[in-house]
Amino acid sequence: MEDIIDEIERLKKERKAIILAHLYQPQEIQEIADYTGDSFGLSRQAAGTDAEVIVFCGVKFMAETANILAPEKITLLPAADATCRMFTDSLTGEVAQMRREKPDAVFVAYVNTPAAVKAMADICCTSSNAAAVVASIPEDKEIVFLPDGNLGSFVEGETGRKMFCWKGGCPTHMGLTEAQLAEAKAKYPAAPVLMHPECRPQLRAMADYVGSTTGIVKYAEKSDAQDFIIATEEGVMYELETRCPGKKFHLASRHMLCPNMKKTTLEKVRDALETLEPRVVVPQDIREKSVAALEKMLAITGK
Ligand code: 13P
Ligand code: SF4
Question: Hey, whose CA ends up nearest to atom 7 of ligand 1?
Answer without folding.
Answer: 39
